[in-house]
Design a protein that fits this description.
It is built from 2 helices and 2 strands.
């Protein structure tokens, strides 16, 4: 238990940095979008970058939630099938 607690500050520092980075990117892209309000092509590029950052952020949150489930014993291994011939091991 003590070992697990000693890792928490380092983990939180890393995660807070990893979460702030895409959030700051989203803020910057929204500000940039305001500067190019009359440019549909630039607006599209900005939306794509924002979506990319949001997807990354969601994956980070999902990873943290999965780690919490692993620590509590709530995450069980399962085999899921995708398509006709792809089998992957995942948490469920």
């Amino acid at each position: 238990m003590r070992h697990r607690q000693s890792n928490i500050p380092g983990f939180l520092a890393t995660m807070s940095h990893d979460i702030r980075t895409p959030l700051n990117g989203i803020i910057g892209m929204v500000n940039m979008g305001n500067q190019y309000a009359d440019d549909p092509q630039m607006q599209q590029k900005i939306r794509e970058k924002v979506m990319e950052s949001l997807k990354y952020l969601v994956s980070l949150v999902n990873d943290v939630l999965d780690m919490n489930k692993l620590q509590s014993g709530d995450l069980k291994d399962s085999v899921e099938y995708y398509g006709q011939c792809h089998k992957i091991q995942s948490g469920g």
